[in-house]
Amino acid sequence: MPPGCTSDQQFPKRSGTGAGRICISQEEAIGKYRAAMAAKQDLDPDFVICARCDLIGAEGGSVEASIERCIAYKEEAGVDLIWLNNVQTIEDMIEAAKRIPGPVIPHFGGPPPEPTLQQLEDWGIAAAIYPGMTTGIGLQATWELINDFKERGSIANKDARAKMSGKWGNVRFDTFAQFSKDDITRIENDFLPKEQQRDYESTFGHFGF
C-alpha cells in the first residue's frame, strides 16, 4: 500500500521546507504516531505509516535532536517508515541513515549538488523524494503551448499534437483505459439493471462510444 504520512509540526502545519515551523513535543508526537499505528491495525495492517520529522530548521531544532526523535518514532511508536525532512548536508544524510532503525528517507534540502541515486542506494536510504519534478515540467510545457496558442491560434495546437505523434498523442478513453464499446456493454449487462444501461447504438461521440 502507499504510505500515509503525518508530520510532527504544530497545527496548522506549514510547508516542511518553509520558515517559521514549530514542532510539537517529542512525547506528543510519539503519541500521535502510536495512535496512527493503532488505527492502521484496525483498518488495514498492510497500510504503511510514515512518520515525518520537520524539526531540522524549525524553532529550537537541530540535526541531533531530529535524529533522536526519528529513532524514538521507530522504537517507541513502531512506525513503518521515517521521513527526516530538510537535511542540509550529505554527511547528515549518511549519519541519519546509519543511526535511524528501519527504512528511512533523509530528504536532502541543502545546496547543490544533490546526491545521486547510486549514492542514496549505497548509503542504505530506503527511498528518495523529488517534489514537483513532473509538475514543473508539465506546467512549463503548458505555459509554452498557451502562449503559442495566443500568438498563432489553433495551428499552435495542431503543431503541438503533431509533436506528440507516436508518444502520448490524444488521450482517448477507449485506448487509455483499454475499454472498447463491447467491454462497456458487457460490464453494463453484467452489473446494471436493463433500464439503467446506455444506448450506444443510436448515439455517438468523438471516439465511437
Question: What does the model show?
Answer:
By secondary structure, the chain is of the alpha/beta class. It has 2 domains: 3-131, Phosphoenolpyruvate-binding domains (TIM Barrel, Alpha-Beta Barrel), CATH 3.20.20; 134-196, no CATH class. The protein has 8 helices and 4 strands. The longest helix is centred in the C-terminal third of the chain and has 20 residues, at 133-152.
Largest sheet, in brief, is: 4 strands, parallel
- β-strand number: 4
The CATH homology group name of the largest domain: Phosphoenolpyruvate-binding domains
Q: What is the string of helix and strand elements?
A: EHEHEHEHHHHH
Regions with pLDDT < 50 over 5+ consecutive residues? none
Which CATH-level-2 architecture of the largest domain?
A: Alpha-Beta Barrel
Roughly how many Å is the radius of gyration?
A: 25 Å
Question: Within the largest sheet, what's the order of strands?
Answer: 1-2-3-4
How far is the N terminus from the C terminus?
34 Å
CATH topology group of the largest domain = TIM Barrel
Strand-pairing-aware structural class: alpha/beta
* Number of helical stretches of at least 4 residues: 8
What is the topological layout?
Elements: E1 3-7, H1 26-43, E2 48-53, H2 63-75, E3 81-87, H3 90-99, E4 104-108, H4 117-122, H5 133-152, H6 154-163, H7 173-176, H8 181-191
Parallel strand pairs: 1-2, 2-3, 3-4
Helix pairs in contact: 5-6
